[in-house]
Amino acid sequence: MSDVAYYIPALLLLVTFALRVPGLVRHWRDPLVRSVAVVLPLGAVVFSFAAPPTVAQVNALTGVTNFSAPLVYVVVTAGSAAVINLMLVWRGGPESRRRAATRWCVGVYGAVVVALLTLFALGDAPDERLRDFDTYYATTPYIREMVVLYVLAHAVSTVILATLCRRWSREVSGLLRAGLLLIVAGGVLSIGYVACKLSAVGARWAGHDWDAVSTTAAPSLAAMSSLLQCVGLALPAVGQGLAERWRRRSQYKRLGPLWQIMREVSPYELVRIPRWSSLSRRHLRRTCDILDGLRLLTPYLERDTGTDEHELTTGPGALTPQAAARAALVIAAFRSLHTEPAPGGSSVAALTAGDEGLVRLSDAVRVMTLLDGVTPRETDPASVPGAARRHSATRQRQRGEQ
Predict the structure, then answer these.
(1) Residue 388 belongs to what H/E stretch?
(2) pLDDT tens string for the chain (402 positions)?
(3) Nearest to 86 by CA among 141, 139, 41
(4) Contacts for 72 with CB less than 8 Å, ≥ 6 apart
(5) Is the distance from CB of 259 to CB of 284 less than 8 angstroms?
(6) In which element (H, E) is residue 214 found?
(7) In sequence order, which ranges of 92-173 are alpha helices (DSSP H)?
(8) Fewer C-beta within 10 Å: the chain N or C terminus?
């Protein structure tokens, strides 16, 4: 395994962590967010410090031969405890039970960390080994125990993680289930890493040389395992964020027909938002423009009788004939919705209470413009409202026949 292959997983873990930084800043008090904030950087540290160039630098800086080996083991063990704690928090359940499990996890793996450092201090590892420390010192007193303890502790955490995720995946669906199954798949590869390490160490005890299994196969499996688990951890949050952004963009585009009409109905100059503004800002501005226009039409929307251009073009706040034609289109579209049962009703208050109501009204306006063969920007005031009212009357008649 080349040196670069150690740094690629570290980079991917850091990228995943960076994607979650905004949520981390907003929800720092959330235990789940804090757990993820610990797990991902620890994984990046493991791969960075396990790379042979970094191993050599750490040994040189500390002045202790092979000091990088117990350092990596300690970080891996701490990461194992953090991952188990993450799953306990992610899974939820009674607070007292979760806290008790977390204390057990921290206590057991804390003891393992102390044992690893103690065994390294008691052992003798005078020759610097950048890649094959595990197998080179597999028969050295205390060092061999340190290696086996580290591998077994990692194996236990992997089995617990895979088991928790597998059980939970049966209860959920969607992106969360996909993320959990990816973590389980990564756990399977991590078990393969453990098997490679133990096989190489066992071969040394039997007098054989299987070092390539430990120095080549095991790191490759660890890298693939971390990649899958990294994607599994990021998928639910990133996927939900992308889905929400897609929903918001779809709503923004669907509000277009109604917004175009409100631009003509509103008697004042609308606020212009630069095209490079964020989607949230543009969506808010478009919604505000629509609501301002609908407030002017509220008296007409609340009536049960028909409305024609004459009513809209006379009296205080009268509209131009072109704006009146488009306003009549909105009124007819509203009444066409009123003939059909809909969640939350179709009163003006219900329509303006959330984005979905405005989107439904905008869709109705778009359908009517298609039926009339015009667009909201066309200027023939006579062609729009007449056909719109005929469509509304037809829908009401069909409703009465049902």
Answers:
(1) helix 383-401
(2) 567 778 887 888 888 788 777 777 777 776 666 666 777 787 788 888 888 888 889 989 988 889 999 999 998 888 888 878 877 777 777 878 888 888 888 899 999 999 999 999 999 988 888 888 999 999 999 999 999 999 999 998 889 888 888 888 888 888 888 988 998 999 999 999 999 999 999 999 998 989 889 888 988 898 888 888 878 877 877 777 777 788 888 888 888 888 887 777 776 666 677 777 788 888 888 888 878 777 777 777 666 545 555 566 555 556 666 667 767 777 777 766 665 544 444 556 666 666 777 887 888 777 777 665 544 444 333 333 444 444 444 444 444 444
(3) 41
(4) 46, 49, 50, 55
(5) no
(6) none
(7) 95-122, 133-136, 143-169
(8) C
Taking a C-beta distance cutoff of 8 angstroms, is the pair 42, 78 a contact?
yes
Contact 233, 245 (CB under 8 A): no
What's the distance, CA 163 to chain centroid? 23
- Token representation of residue 368: 């009517």
CA gap 225, 325 in Å, rounded: 63
Residue 323 to residue 120: CA distance in whole angstroms: 83
> Which structure tokens are listed for 129?
């080994």
Compute the distance between CA of residue 180 and CA of residue 163 in angstroms, rounded to an integer: 10
